[in-house]
Amino acid sequence: MSNYKILTINPGSTSTKIALFQGEECTFSKNVSHDAAELDKFQSLSDQLPYRRDMILSLLEEADISLDDVDVFVGRGGGLLAMEGGTYAVSELMLDHAKNSANGVVHPAGLGPQLANEFAVKYNAKAMVVNPPDVDELQDLARMTGIKGVNRVIHLHALNLKETAIRHSKNVMNKKYEDCNYIVCHIGGGISVSAHRQGKMVDGFDIVGGEGPMAPTRCGSIAVADLLGYIRKNNMELADVKKLCTRTGGFVSHAGISDALELTKRAEKGDKHAEMLWNTMIYQIEKCIGSMAAVLHGNVDGILLGGGMVYNKDLVSQITETCSFIAPVTAYPGEFEMEAMAAGAVRVLDGEEELKEYIGKLVWDGFDWEK
């Protein structure tokens, strides 16, 4: 087993998760909390960098952990232009794009490459990013829409989706990820449903854009005419409409909460609205799984479920009952994000994968006839 020392860094809105690995074994992990009022003092997201870096260093010092012998620092990626999946070296171009949110999405994950680079420079190590949310491997048939000039791109939980598929291939199928076809779902605060064909995520639902099933804070797919009527009725601004896609839709819109556990408790106590909301979300996930089965022409080796809500046995039971005719359903509750970042670095260091270069150009920028 590889014995590289790796620190993974996953910045969130008010916290930064860190985990130290010896090879693929986690030896230390911590969720570093940041005071929201303190973060509000910074004008931009990237201005938070020294504050978050010093908080991490302070915590590690308290735990008597030295970073002097770390081989690789891996940061959660964000703000980057669409790219193929894989493990990428942190470069000056990547840092510039992450800092300035080149893809137009301002998210704390964009601090990941910057933090990894800060530590790598300080401790003379490598800095990498593994399968950021900007991974786009859509097949051409999945690109076009019914409006000329509007083509599909996707934003999914690529890191966890791909790692779940890689692990299932190795541990259950005894095959390589590149030799298998899967439908992989991440079911948490956001819900990603994706089709993986021979190591490529060839289709899925854009959760940032509002596609796919409803989720605790996301509205999911809605007929355009119905949405326009809702906007007129409520005199909504564009910013409010965008919030429905990621923050105020789903459970929040219906029940005023985003906690799935609280919703299921209400349902168990006889709240029919809560029960219908829960079952409707699962129904929509099942429909999306069915559509991804069609993408793979029915050639599906497994349906893999990951994410926090997969701890719920009712959710897994319903999906299994409905979708197991397509392929065996396997549940992986929780997420492998920190492990996935370490595993990506190990694969590169072991020579199993090639370390990729971020070129800062869209992996796909339109059909030939549009140029």
Summarize the structure.
The protein contains twelve helices and eleven strands.
Key traits:
371 residues, alpha/beta, Nucleotidyltransferase, domain 5, 2 domains, 11 strands, 37% helix
Structural class computed from helices and strand pairing: alpha/beta
CATH fold node name of the largest domain: Nucleotidyltransferase, domain 5
First and last CA, distance: 49 Å
- The strands making up the biggest β-sheet line up spatially as 3-2-1-4-6-5
Using only CA atoms, what is the Rg? 21 Å
| Integer tally of domains | 2
Task: Describe the secondary structure blueprint for this structure.
Blueprint: E1 5-11, E2 15-22, E3 25-33, H1 36-39, H2 49-62, E4 72-75, E5 87-89, H3 92-100, H4 111-123, E6 126-130, H5 158-173, E7 181-187, E8 191-197, E9 200-204, H6 224-234, H7 238-246, H8 250-255, H9 260-268, H10 272-295, E10 302-307, H11 313-323, E11 329-333, H12 337-349
Parallel strand pairs: 1-4, 4-6, 7-10, 10-11
Antiparallel strand pairs: 1-2, 2-3, 5-6, 7-8, 8-9
Helix pairs in contact: 3-4, 5-12, 9-10, 10-11
